[in-house]
Amino acid sequence: MYIVSYDIASDRLRNRIARTLEGYGRRVQYSVFECELSEKRYKELYEKLLKLTDSMTDGSIRFYPICQNCQKKKLVIGIPEETDNILREDVIVV
């Protein structure tokens, strides 16, 4: 898993980066995404973002790799966004 965060001044570029990241992961905060990526998908995403930012004059995108052990230690205060992925036994979907 990777945590990808960005700080981009340009509204247009920031929106393009966010749309790109939405195809690879889940937004957990306004400018932070959790991305479960294979090595191939990671390289693909990195290259796309690199191309989008080739003329960027300020700002940054950061990738933080998170190992399996660290993922298990994650704590969330508040309502976690991942509840939409949890299957509940008391709900029947038809």
Task: Write up this protein.
This protein is of the alpha+beta class. 33% of the residues lie in helices and 21% in strands. The protein is built from 3 helices and 4 strands, in the order βαββαβα. The protein has helices spanning 11-22, 39-52, 68-72, and strands at 2-7, 26-29, 32-35, 60-65. Strand 2 and strand 3 (32-35) form a beta hairpin. The model is unreliable at 83-88 (pLDDT under 50).
Q: Give the fraction of residues assigned to helices.
A: 25-40%
Shape: globular
Query: Biggest sheet: strands, sense, closure?
Result: 4 strands, antiparallel
Query: Order of strands across the widest beta sheet?
Result: 2-3-1-4
As residue ranges, the low-confidence spans are 83-88
Summarize the topology.
Elements: E1 2-7, H1 11-22, E2 26-29, E3 32-35, H2 39-52, E4 60-65, H3 68-72
Antiparallel strand pairs: 1-3, 1-4, 2-3
Helix pairs in contact: 1-2
Short summary of the structure?
The protein is α+β, with helices and mostly antiparallel strands. It is built from 3 helices and 4 strands; from the N terminus they run E-H-E-E-H-E-H.
Features:
single chain, 94 residues, 4-stranded antiparallel sheet, 3 helices, globular
